[in-house]
Amino acid sequence: ACYWLEEYHFDGLRVDAISRIIYWQGDEKRGQNKNAIDFIKVMNQGLKERHTGCILAAEDSTNFPNVTRSVANGGLGFDYKWNMGWMNDTLEYFRTPPEYRTRDYHKLTFSMMYAYNEDYLLPLSHDEVVHGKATITQKMSGQYEDKFPQARALYLYMMLHPGKKLNFMGNEIGQLREWDEKREQDWELRKYPMHDSFYHFIVELNKYYLKMPAFYQGDYEQRGFQWLDCHQEANCIYAIQRTAYSGKEAKEVVCGIFNFSREEKNYPAPFLDDAKYDVLLNTDWERFSGRTKEIAESYQKGEMLLLPPYSGILFQKQEKDKEKKIQEIQESVKETEI
Question: What's the first-to-final CA gap in the chain, in angstroms?
Fold first, then answer.
């Protein structure tokens, strides 16, 4: 492991199947494998001493505690733990035909019941695009034209959900062929408008993530996330707020409102205060191959929003000092290549 970090300059390592290390044959009933646990602790601690900036991630499906706590504080010494529950529940939800999503509504809320138990990473990794599982875009319910709006809304939801993000190669162009280590990705897909606009959507979304601390600063603090509405079971609507703080003062607030049904919905804005909230991004904008015209819009609490089918809208709370203007942020991310 140290050789890979030193000679190949890897940013970090993901250790597979930690459950098989913690428990004999991965079975909790067979008891803990103390020697293997000690080995992992020694390895992680040694790697951190030699490569302080390396990322160590555990692919672990168990409830074993303190996986992401330092060894000195009684943990296994990983930086992040694969959030297998979020990945499974989320992808299962989007596979489900929309008429059944009212039944499965809380598959998307359950992850917040345990979100602060560990420092989680949200993985849409190689494991999710191989072995007959289908690519992320292909997993979406419905036909070709239904899959892309759902995938765009899924990725906005993923960015706003607490936890670091992992997106595997090919997902950013909406690839519909599973990954194969023997051939390159289907880059020619960008010749097709639906795939090219999907790529540009991912570019913009990544840029917002990098520019706006509210997306990531409070990943592991409960004050960084809040449900604005998670009880729209009949409508498949969800509303999320993420907040970045400076000390005790909220410095930046972004909100995401989602309609994961196939019907257009009218919905009163559920913001927590009477400030104005500007639309930063709409997954249904025409330039992303959607149907909504892009215009400058602001909303206040209680005002009716028109939520297109399979869509997500990103809002930013207007700042009192006006130093950060909505137009400046949008222009800085538009059509910017990664």
Answer: 29
Query: Which DSSP category does 319 fall into?
Result: P
Pairing state between β 55-58 and 12-15: parallel
Contact 194, 174 (CB under 8 A): yes
Task: State yes or no: is 59 an active-site residue.
Answer: yes
Give me the catalytic one of 6, 28, 38, 59.
59
Per-residue pLDDT reduced to its tens digit, 173-183: 999 999 999 99
Q: What distance in Å separates the CA atoms of residue 57 and residue 67, rounded to the nearest whole number?
A: 9
284 is catalytic: no
**Rounded to an integer, what distance in angstroms lies between the CA atom of residue 204 and that of residue 262?**
24
φ, ψ of residue 152 to 5 degrees: the values are: -65, -45
Cα angle, residue 57 at apex, residues 221 and 77 outer, rounded to 5°: 75
* Number of Cβ within a 10 Å radius of residue 40: 21
- If one counts every other C-beta atom within 10 angstroms of the C-beta of residue 211, the result is 12
Phi-psi sector, 163: left (phi>0), alpha (psi -120 to 50), beta: left
d(CA 235, CA 210): 31
146: amino acid identity, one letter: D
One-character DSSP codes across 65-127: TTTTS-GGGTS---SEEE-HHHHHHHHHHHHS-GGGTTTTGGGTTGGGGSTTSS-EEEEE-GG
Q: Which uninterrupted H or E stretch holds 7?
A: helix 2-7
Q: Check: pTM over 0.70? Answer yes or no.
A: yes
Catalytic residue chosen out of the listed positions 16, 28, 92, 263? 16
- One DSSP character per residue, 182-245 reads TS---GGGGGSHHHHHHHHHHHHHHHHHHH-GGGTTTTTSGGGEEEEEEEETTTTEEEEEEEEE
Confidence bin at 273 (pLDDT 50/70/90): very high
pLDDT tens digits, one per residue of 288-305 = 999 999 999 999 999 999
